[in-house]
Input
Amino acid sequence: MTAVTALLRQLGTGLRFLLVMTVLLGLIYPLAVWAIGQIGFRDQANGSLIHSNGQVVGSQLIGQEFSGTRWFHSRPSATATTPYDGLASGGSNLGPTNPELVKLVKERKAEVARQNGVPESAVPPDAVTASASGLDPHISPAYADIQVNRVARANGLSPAQVRALVAQHTDHPSLGFLGEPGVNVVELNLALARLSGTR
Amino acid sequence: MSPGLTAVLLVAVLVTLLAVVHRPFGDYMAWVYTSEKDLKVERWLYRAVRVNPRSQQGWTIYAASLVAFSIVSVLFLYLLQRLQSFLPWSVGMKPVPPDGAFNTAVSFVTNTNWQWYSGESTMSYLTQMAGLTVQNFLSAAVGMAVAIALVRGFARRKTRELGNFWVDLTRTTLRILLPLSFVAAIILLANGVIQNLADPTTVHTLAGATQHLPGGNVASQEAIKDLGTNGGGPFNANSAHPFENPTGFTNLFEIFLLLVIPFSLPATFGRMVGNLKQGYAILAAMGVIWIGAVVAMYAVEFAHPGAALQAAGGALEGKETRLGVSSSPLFAVSTTLTSTGAVNSMHSSYTALGGGITIFDMVLGEVAPGGTGSGLYGMLILAVVAVFVAGLMVGRTPEYLGKKIGAREMKLVSLYILTTPALVLMGAGLALALSAGRSSILNPGPHGLSEVLYAFTSASNNNGSAFAGLSANTPFYNTALGLAMLFGRFVPMVLVLALAGSLASQKPVPETAGTLRTQSPLFVGMLAGVAIIVAGLTFFPALALGPIAEGLL
Output
C-alpha cells in the first residue's frame, strides 16, 4: 500500500476518532468541571464577585480604574482604549529600552510623587509600570503606603485608620513564598467607602 | 521575605516536587504504553471508530494515520470557527475571518497555540470548549505518541512494528491527560479560576463606571493548556489574567503542570528501553539546561538593565504585582523551554537579555524538557548527534542503545536539525524584507527585529508565546506563521517516525568495552553541549542583531 492510499483510508478513522473525542473532551469534560464548579465552588467559578447594595461592584480578582484624591489608585493599565477594560486584557508590550516607555515611566513618576506629596525616590516600580493583564487587582504595600496620607485627608479619616484598612486588605503569599504581597485596591476602596459613610 | 529568597524557595520546591514525581509517573506512563489490556471504555471507543487495537503499524502507516488525523482536525477546527456564530454558546461572537481561522486551526493542532486574537473578544464558548480544548488534549497526545514510537524504535529489534497510532492516542488521552486535567481543573477552580457559561458580568465599579468581566469554562481549559504544554489560554493576557492564574499558588501549580510530563518522560524512556540510567542521562541534560536558563533569567530580571526599567526602579512592566520579579521569570523560562507558550508576564517587556533568553530557550528546539513528547524525541535526536560526534572523534561506527547510527539515520537526523532553523531564519528574513512584515513592528531598533525573530521562532518550534508588541493579526503573518507552524511540526515528526522505523528494523549490536557509555556524566555534558552549540551556531548572528544588540545599548 502506498502512503497516499494509506492516508486516505486513515482519514475516515481520523474523523470518527475526532468526533468521539470532541464529545468526550469538548463537552463532557468541561461540563463536568462546570457542574462541580457551580455546585461546590460557586463563588470562585463565577468570578469571585463582590456585591454591595444589591449590585455587583467588582471582583476580588480584577482591578478597577480609580482617580481623584479620595481613592487609592491602581497601577497603570495598558488594556485597549480604556484602562481596566475587562474584555481587553493585556500589557503594553513596550520594550525595556523603548523611548516611549522611558517617557511614560518618568511622567508617571512625577505625577504620582506630586499627587501624594512624596519625593520621586519614594515611588515604587509598580506605580509607574503597566501590569501584564492590565487588570492587576493589587498594588505593592509600598505604593499603598505613599497614598495613605492623601486618602486619609480626602476622606476625613486619620492616617492610622486608613493604614489599618490597608493592613486588613493586604494579601500575603501563602507559605510566605508563593507569590508576592499585594494590597487589593478594589476591596480596600470598598472598605474605605464604607468607613467614610459614602456607601 | 526578600524577592531573591522567594525565588530560591520557589525553584527549590518545584525541583523537589518534580524529583519526587517523575519516577513513579514515568513508570506509570511506561505501563500505559506497554500494557496488553484495554480498558472497557477504550474497547468501546475502538469499536466506535473501527480500529483493531491489536494491529501493529509500520512507520509509514503510523505517519499516515498521524497526518490524516491532523488534516481532519485542522478542517474541523477551521469550520467550527467560521460557523461559531450559528452554533450554541456563541455569546455574540462573529465568525472568525478566513486567514485567522486557518492560523488558529493550525496553531492548536500543532500544539503551538500561537494566538493572534484576544480570546475574550473573538472565540465563542463552544469554540473554546469543543474546538480549542479538544486540540489541547489531542495535539499533546500526538506528540507523546511520536515520542513513544521513537522509544519503541530503540527498544524493539528486527521488526517493522512501531505500535498503533490510534491506540497510543487513545491511551495517552484517557489514561494520562484526562484524569490529570480533571484533578488539576478542580484544584484551579477551588483557587479562583472561573468556570461558567454566563454572559460577561456587568460590574458597577466603585468609581461609578461600568466594567464587563468575561466568563467561560476557563479552569477546564487552563488545566490541559498547561499539562499538555499547549499554552493557548481563553484570554489575551493568558496566565497573567487573574481569572486564569489568580494567586502565587496557582502560578507554581501551573508551572508544575507544564513541566511534569516532559520531565517524567525520560523515566518512561529508560523503563521502556530496559535501562533506567539511560533515562536519567537524558533527564540530566534537560535539567542542566533548564536550571541554567532559570538562574540566568533571574539574574538579569533582578538587575533590570534598560533605560525604562532603570527609571522605574524594577522590571515590573508587564508583570503582575502578586507574581512580581520573584515568580514571573520561572514561568517565562519553563514556558519557553517546554513548547508551552503560555505567559504569566509579557516577554516583550522583559530586560533585553531576559527576552533574549526566552528566544534562546526556544531555538534550542524545545528539548529542555520540551513539549509533551516533542521534548523527548527532540532530545533523543540530539543524543544521536552526540554519539555521532563522539564516534567521529574516536573513529568508530557510532551506536546508541545498541542501534547503529548509519548513513540513513544521520540523514534523517540532519534533516530534522535543519528544518526549524530554516523555517525561522528564512521566515524572519522574508518578513523583514517585506513591508507587510515590517509594518507590524511596535518597538523601534533591535527590539523590533527581536519581535519578528521571536514570532517565527515561536511558530516554527511550536511554542506559541509572543513578543506581543508585533501586530500579528495581518493576512501576511497569519499565513506565514501558519505555514511555519505546520512545517515546523509535521516535517520533524515524519522524520522521527522514519528514524524509528529504521532503528526498529535493526538487530542490536552487543555492547563492548569500546561502546560509548551513554549513561555517563561525560555523555550528559556532551549532550547538553551539543544542544547549545547546534542552536548557538545557527542562531548567534540573529540573536546578536536583536536582543544582544539591545542589551548593549
Notes: Residues 3-201+212-552 of chain B form one domain. The mean pLDDT of chain B is 95.
